[in-house]
Amino acid sequence: MTVAKAPTNPRRAALIKLIQVARRDLGRQCGLDELAYRDILRTIGKSESLAAMSVPNMELVLAHMKAKGFVVRPKAGDRPQALNPDASKVRALWLFLHALGEVRDPSEKALAAYVKRIAKVDDLRWARGRVVETLIETLKKWAMRRLPEAVAALRAEVLMAHRAVPLNSDQAELAMQAQRCLNRGQGFDMHWQAWEYLSKALDRPISTEMDALKVEEGLQ
C-alpha cells in the first residue's frame, strides 16, 4: 500500500531556498561562517536546523539576514516592484499582513492579483489618487482585524521576558514608547508603531521593506 505524501508548503520551500542563498551571499559579503549561521538559526529561528523550523520563524531568520545586507534578487519574469511612495506603502502593508499571518503569499504576483481585484488596475504602478488611497485604507482595515491582538500578545511577551530577566534600559524605553503610542490613539498608525517598538524590545528583526509604514515624527 502506497502512503500519500503530505502536501508541500510552497512558502516553506521558498524560504529554505532563500535562507540558503542568503547564507552563501552573506558568507561572501561579510564572512558569515557556519558557527554564526547556526547561531542565527538558534537565536532568531529557535531551532538548530531549517528542517525543524516553523515557517514564521523562517520569516524572522530571513528578515534578520536582510537586515544584515542580504538582497533578494528577483527571478526572471517577476513583476517589477513599484517605487513611488504610495505604491511602496501598499507593498509594505501587504508584507506586514504577511508578518501578521493574514497573507500567505507575500510575492509581487499575489499583490498584483489583489490590486487588480480591489482597484481594478493591472499593475500597482498605475494606481493613483483615490485608487491608491482605497488600497491603503482597505489594507489597513484588514490589518486591524488582527493587529490589536498581535500587539497585546507582544506586550504579554515583553512582560514575561521582563519577569524572567529584567529589560535593559533600551528595551524598557521601547516598551514605554509602545504604550505611549497606544495612549495617543487606537487606529492603525499607533498600533503599527506599538507593534514595531515591542518587536524591537524583543530583539525581533523587522524587514526594512516595511519602512514605508513608519509614522512621521510630527504625527506621533
UniProtKB/TrEMBL annotation:
It comes from Oryzisolibacter propanilivorax. This is Mu-like prophage protein gp16. It holds the Pfam family GemA.
